[in-house]
From TrEMBL:
The active site is at residues 53, 198. Pfam families: Patatin. Transmembrane segments: none annotated. It comes from Turicibacter faecis. Belongs to the patatin family. Residues 8-211 form the PNPLA domain. The lineage of its organism: Bacteria, Bacillati, Bacillota, Erysipelotrichia, Erysipelotrichales. A motif (GXGXXG) lies at residues 12-17. This is Patatin. Keywords: Hydrolase, Lipid degradation, Lipid metabolism. A motif (GXSXG) lies at residues 51-55. It comes from the Bacteria. InterPro entries: Acyl_Trfase/lysoPLipase, PNPLA_dom.
Amino acid sequence: MKKKICILSIDGGGIRGIIPAKILVRLEKLLQEYSRNPQARISDYFDLIAGTSTGSILTGLYLCPSDGERKMAKYTAQQALDLYLNEGAKLFQRSWKTKFFDYFGLLNPLYKENRLEDILTEYIGDLRLSELLKPCLIPSYDIESGKAVFFNQVTAIKDKSRDLLVKDVIRASTAAPTYFPVKNVLNPVHHHSHTFIDGGLVANNPTLCAYIEACKFEGYSDTDDIMILSLGTGARDQTYQYQHSKRWGKVGWIVPLIHIYGSVGSQTVDHQLVQLYQRHHIRSQYVRIEPNLGSFGVSHAMDDVSIKNILALEAVGERMVEEYDEQLKSFVRQLCLNHDLKVSK
């Protein structure tokens, strides 16, 4: 059997990152159980991790090397989840000044970036892309050049000008317009600066981008060679009636367009990959988990960090673990079997 490329892909979604983080806690426990290795980590079994916005935070944590052993992951899946549970409220906290002078965020971003940057520094430090344990793919958008950017560990190793600090890359991918300020990053070689905004505008669901990236791996080019676990942060069946929407102008369409854009983009990527894997008769090699938040009564807001909502998001993640129990176990068995194979020459 030929060793396959295994991809983990995580959508954007702010505090809703609790959902995929919870699922991956279960996945890591299954990996430890099936491999009989209590030290097994997510990064041991995936060859490429892609993450957008909140997904980029999880990507950085899973691929962050241990201080003592550079080939071992520093954080467990549970520790990654704990960051959201313990620090989530701090990320989306507003001062009384911002509430008083610009309550709705019409003139300024809703949140300051310093709390997020402090947390990233605490957890990841001055680690560079080239130092990550495995290849990654993190999307963002350069508003100065007008181009989508995909931060990549493999490219960073080859080109020092692309070897940015991981914490800066994550900030670039999480710079959601109206929520956080844009991120200005200085090129370490050419000393040119670039200004980035949220990767969700490029690929909120980065799975297809990750698939294309995997096709570049030496010796791999076919769908049969690639396994994918794609995790969403929760969809919502938001609909808009004709009688209301027919009178909307620019202001009326702002919020609906944001919701529609993110939702439709993720749905399209999933549909394309389902068709691709069905055509190759290897449907089990692609697993997508995306809960419908409407059926759980959970807030779809990416910044709802109330205790009630955080507990509800945890419960949704646990429900997904139960609902997809057999698929997760089957996928983990494939991961473990694949991990023991030697690379085909």
